[in-house]
Amino acid sequence: MQRTCSEINEKIKAGKASVLTALEAKSLIAEKGFKTFLNTVDIVTTASFEMNTNSVLYLNFGQTDPLIYFSEVSINNVPAYPAGPTDLVLPCVSFSKDDHKYSGANVLEELIKGNDLHLKAIGRNLEVFPNKEFETWFNLKNLNHGRLLLNQAVNQNNIVATNSGDKDINSHMGTLIAHLENSTYNSSSCLNPLVNDPFCKTIGIGSRIWVAGATGYIVGHGSNHNPLQKRNDFNVPVGSAITLSAIAEIGNMNSKWVRGGFLKSFGPVLYIGVGIPIPVLNEEIASSIAITDDKIHSTIVDFSIPRRTKPTFGLCTYSELRSSTVLINKKPTLSAPLSSMAGAIEITQLVKESILSKNLLLSEPISAINMNVEVKKLDSRLAELV
Amino acid sequence: MAAKKNKKTEKIKEQIEPASSSLRTRKRVILSFPPSLVQTPVTYMLAKEYDIVSNILRAEIAPEESGKLVMEMDGLPENLDKAIERIKESGIEITEIARKVTFAMDKCIHCGACISVCLAGALKLDKDFHLEFIEPKCTVCEMCVTSCPVDVVNIDI
Rounded to an integer, what distance in angstroms lies between the CA atom of residue B139 and that of residue A297? Predict the structure, then answer.
């Protein structure tokens, strides 16, 4: 059975495409077998609703009178960085000067909700841009455009964090209680797009995806991209591996899927919903979609040592993790997720609906994701290398 | 007839089964002692008759003067109620400091960060991966309040 993207798109336009969410696809395979799935289903929708720190918001304002060239700017007291006369870059992890819990991610959430925000700018006072100071209230409608760059829109897998030390640790993986009392994991496992397509056979640069209700595009590999990560017997990496970078216009986003958050003693995070449809082009792709939680492994990492290389406690499967108790060092340990599975399930449903209503068509990648990149280490060096 | 039998067996069960630790809850109270009752050994009575562990948080009692005691009582819910009634009858004024964890479920994203710190087991995901709060198990340790990334958990006083 072979299909192409354009064939499936014709089917979508004719209202004849058969679309299933990842969960529906897996239960169909379990009930009616792999052959039925391969022969009847055209598209499977996958999603993640995970924590993100590598995101940047790009805002383009109209000109003021007299003209201004931004030099120091804040939005709701959150520092933003000038990127041209009236252009701003706002990292989601930039936080307010008077409330460290209020960040760029919260600004993004409020913008999408349509709330009014306070802009305070100091101009460079140039000959043609003489405006020295400017203050205003604005909302999404007053912007020329706003674009979100998610530099780690999707992460193929993530580690499991735990703490064998004597002191509780507040980390980017939540609060880890001492003496292996708890562990946290951060992946939508069997719903994750890159678990269902582990070698990026259908996802590539230019792929059209769903970002928080708007249409987004994959622009390449993302932060900490590590395609050479060790894989298990079912081709799924056992730790953080392939990451994808995506852009989307914020205008059409739904604030339900863009949430600013704050982790204690760590800082701001952004929860963003991403959905990717995977075309069932051939048997190989179909067999990778058949994967279930018991075949996806992750590495348990001890966070008690704050170094680049940390000790590990071996592997465990996601079905163990989702049972809420996992054995670490022979000790039953409470395990809890940090990414929203309920959100991911809802997103797969929404993506399915937008395909069925002909709002989201498949797109063939313009170029493949670079699968031969090594993760670099940043070490200190005392002099220039000649 | 059948209903009566059930009641009887329930009573027997209550007597046989030891107080399971997961059902214990905590209540914070303020006791105001009039001068005549300052010498009453309240915590001993609570431990002996109601199996209540009392943790004194603040005490201002001097002999022959009125006194104040702020403490946390840890025990089975029905024992706590009985003990409070008993203290009232003895003439000591008792006021509860009600503390309760509440979840603004409409804003919750069901990520599960609060579950990871709930060692009392009061939080879990249901079969559809939505957050479920089992309030009787909650010990109001407040770990979930600070662990929530989207500020959904609150303490009601």
Answer: 34
Residue in A193, A370, A366, A191 with CA at minimum distance from that of residue A279: A193
Residue A58's contacts (CB-CB under 8 Å, 6 or more residues apart) are: A83, A87, A88, A89, A90, A146, A147, A148, A149
Give the closest-approach CA distance of A303 to chain B in angstroms.
Answer: 15
Nearest C-alpha neighbor of A259 from the set A139, A75, A104, A91: A104
Domain spans in chain A, listed from the N-terminal domain onward: 5-53+148-356, 62-143
Shortest CA distance to B59 belongs to which of B67, B48, B49, B47? B67
CA distance A143 to A124: 21
Residue type, A25: A
- Give residues 340 to 369 of A whose Cβ lies within 8 Å of B: 340-343, 345
Q: Is A264 on the interface with B (CB under 8 A)?
A: yes
Put simply, the answer to whether A269 touches B115 (Cβ < 8 Å) is no
* Type of residue numbered A94: S
Question: What ipTM was reported for this prediction?
Answer: 0.88
> Domains in chain B, start-ordered, CATH in brackets?
2-96 (3.30.70.260), 100-156 (3.30.70.20)
Give pLDDT, residue B64: 67
HSE (side-chain half, CA atoms, 13 Å) at A45: 26
Q: How many CA atoms lie within 13 A of A50 on its CB side?
A: 28
Which tens digits make up the pLDDT trace of B107-154?
999 999 999 999 888 999 999 999 999 988 887 778 899 999 999 999
A-interface mutation test, from B108, B109, B134, most A Cβ less than 10 A away: B109
Which of the 8 DSSP states describes residue B84? H
Over residues A179-190, the mean pLDDT reads 93
The SS3 assignment for A84 reads coil
